[in-house]
Amino acid sequence: MEENRTLNFIEEIIESDLADGKCDAIVTRFPPEPNGYLHIGHAKAICINFGLRRQYNGKCNLRYDDTNPSKEDVEYVNSIKQDIAWLGFEWDNELYASDYFERMYECAEDLIRKGLAYVCDYDAEQIRATRGTLTSPGTESPWRNRSVEENLQLFRDMRAGKYADGEKVLRAKIDMSSANINMRDPVIYRILRATHHRTGDAWCIYPMYDFAHPLEDAFEGVTHSICTLEFEDHRPLYDWVKIHCGFGSLPRQIEFARLGMTRTIMSKRYLKKLVDEGKVSGWSDPRMPTLSGMRERGYPAEAIRNFCQAIGVSKANSEVDVAMLEHFVRDVLNRDADRVMVVKDPIKLIVENVDAPETYDVENNPNAEVKTTRKVTFGRELYIDREDFAVVPPPKYKRLVPGGTVRLKGSYIVEYVSHETDAQGNVTQIVCRYIPDSISGGANAGMKVKGVIQWVNAADCVDLTLHEYDYLLLDGDGDFNDRLTPDSHRVFDRAKGEAALRACKPYDRLQFMRMGYYSAVGNYGTDGKYEFNLVTGLKDSFGK
Questions:
Q1: What is the pTM of this model?
Q2: Which of 31, 138, 206, 506 could form a disulfide with 184, with the two C-beta atoms 3.0–4.6 Å apart?
């Protein structure tokens, strides 16, 4: 742990438990349900659980809570493993709730023998209707006092498939007048005919999360079960299951505030809705707040880890500005990304006094510890961006204008000679002359110019397609569907880039000078197509 860093409340609990001898070593777990792809909110839980593993030289298991086969799929199982590994973490064991189905069933029968569970014939709506309110107690089920023998037989018949889905459930017998509604005889098993991705059709009854989760933790020797704040009211039930099924003071459940972020969807249900309705290309669409979407967009895993560390761990829910995440993305890329020149909307620039092309070295990244260079060719025909020339310039315009001069980034100063237009008055070509000896180190390099612009050599440049993205949600509150950002994906297919970009590999990240940070797409270079995703812009608005 860093010196002089204040412990967060989870670390304080763990250090107290270690000091008191409640446990000798720390065991945590990350327990996703494989019903969708992980998103940025899960990254916080991953960093906490696997971070504690590193900090206390303990263990952290990856455990899939696969108790609802109707919504789960092996696709999600595989994506979760890929995302955790990409974030830079390793799990000690890969486990599944389904590993324990038989043991959980035995625990349920044991509760029946102790008179602590019963089979109820109410359907879900009847159970809700008789549960009571925050100010009034619930009503006991008419089947609450069935004999142990009858309950055992009915539960075994449920397992044998003798009843329809929803026809019967197994409920814990606790207290229908408890102030905590979660303790009012909660359902712990239901009938569900759905093929499981691991056990197939071997089971037609499945444990509920509140019953399965504490047992899984206990079976695995988890010492500290870290979960989000909405499970705080479920902790008495967690402890009830743990104790009455024969386990001691550990595992210990600890709740922290989940991550909320502006303009960001933090619900797998809504994210799945976007995928199912075709409003995004899939779970890995670069606009998605999924970890796979962020990876596809070009976010560095280090930036996400740094972000999670910076937001910290607390017991109070709050909302983080999405600009904070982008700040950490930009911070990593500013250090690591090589600089190149790209023009998004190219227009031809003829340098009329160039007799022969010349090639020279330019620096890749001024922030890199080890300095490297690349070759850039300056020739007679170049491309500059259309917005970098104005026949009638707006106020404070600092680029090329009739009668003006401008420096080409890393190269010569050029002076305007003439330009051509088409029938609609659009500029089609600009003619300039370069100033001899105006390149860095030359006698005329100190000439004052209004601005510096990027350019590419027409003879060897590469055709690029650029994808730029906005957040999926607009600012403000209201219905999810009304807040979807229109035109959140824009494509620019006329861009030109330096010749060096042909050598890029998928997911290489670069700074396109004066434009932003971009990442090569996953199939970059396939069939001669060179495409980049905008990762984030150059301007950092966080904290301003």
A1: 0.94
A2: 138
Tell me how many degrees the CA angle 112-118-120 measures, rounded to the nearest 5.
160
Percent of the residues in the chain that have a pLDDT greater than 90, as a whole number: 93
For 169, 170, 354, the CA distances from 123, given in Å and listed in that order, are 8, 11, 84
Is 328:303 a contact under the CB 8 Å cutoff? yes
Longest dimension (CA), the chain: 101
Alpha-carbon span 212 to 503, nearest angstrom: 51
Catalytic residue among 198, 258, 263, 279: 258
pLDDT digits (tens, 9 = 90+) for 130-185: 999 999 999 999 999 999 999 999 999 999 999 999 999 999 999 999 999 999 99
The DSSP result for 136-151, as a single string, is: S-----TTTT--HHHH
Q: What is the 3-state secondary structure (H, E, C) of 192-249?
A: CCCCECCCECCCCEEECHHHHHHHHHHHHCCCEEEEEHHHHHHHHHHHHHHHHCCCCC
Instruction: Catalytic residue, from 29, 252, 268, 399: name it.
Output: 268
Q: Is 33 a catalytic residue?
A: yes
Q: Taking a C-beta distance cutoff of 8 angstroms, is the pair 48, 224 a contact? A: no
Q: Which tens digit of pLDDT belongs to each residue from 329-338? A: 999 999 999 9
* Burial 443-465, CB ≥16 within 10 A → b, else e: eeeeeebeebbbbbbbebbbebe
Give tens-digit pLDDT for 4-47: 678 999 999 999 999 999 999 999 999 999 999 999 999 999 99
| 76: β partners | none
Measured in whole angstroms, how far is the alpha carbon of residue 526 from the centre of its chain? Answer: 26
Residue 3, pLDDT score:
55
Q: Which of 33, 302, 381, 415 is catalytic?
A: 33
Query: Which amino acid, residue 16?
Result: S
Residue 471 to residue 215: CA distance in whole angstroms: 40
Tell me if 430 sits within 8 A of 349, measured CB to CB.
yes
pLDDT (tens digit per residue) in 175-184: 999 999 999 9
Where residue 250 falls among pLDDT bands split at 50, 70, 90? Answer: confident
CA 175 vs CA 149, 181, 349, 486, 505: distances in Å: 22, 9, 81, 50, 61
Provide CB contacts within 8 A for 419, sequence distance 6+: 389, 391, 402, 427, 429, 430, 431
| Cis before 300? omega within 30 | no
Active site residue 268: yes
